Amino acid sequence: MKRAIFPGSFDPFTIGHHDIVMRGLEIFDEIIIGIGHNYNKREVFPIADRLAAIQRAYNKESRVRVEVYDGLTVDFAAEHQAQFILRGVRSTLDFEYERNIAEANKQLSGIETVLLYTRPEYAHISSTLVRDLHSHGKDIAAYIPDTK
Fold first, then answer.
1. What is the pTM assigned to this prediction?
2. Catalytic one of 2, 37, 41, 138
C-alpha cells in the first residue's frame, strides 16, 4: 500500500489543497492529512475547527484521514508508516522552499517527497490570502472546499 502524508498548518484548508489531495489519490492508496502546529505563524482559525472542516470535506472518501500532529513531519510520517510526503507547489518560490525541505527530510528519514504543481486556476490562492480576506470581513466560501 502506498501511503502519503500531506502536512501543513492549513489555516485554512483551501480549494488548492483539496485539489492536491484529490490528484494525490490518483497516485497513492491512502493520504493522511496532517495538520501541524506551526509555532512561527499566528493561527487565525482554531485547530479544532480546521480538523472538523477537513474531516467534513472527506467524510465520503475512505482513503483520506485527517489528524493533528506536533513535532517533525518525518516523525509523523514514520508513526503512520507513510512512505511519501505529498506537497503542492504554486510558484518557483514554493519550489525552492519545498526542495530544501524535501532534501532535509530525505536525509533525516529516507522518505521521498512528491511535489504536485498547482493547477493554474488555483495558483493565486494561498492560506495567507484567504486569512487576509477573512480578517477584512470578505466572504471566503469560493476559496475553501464545500464541507456540507
1. 0.94
2. 41
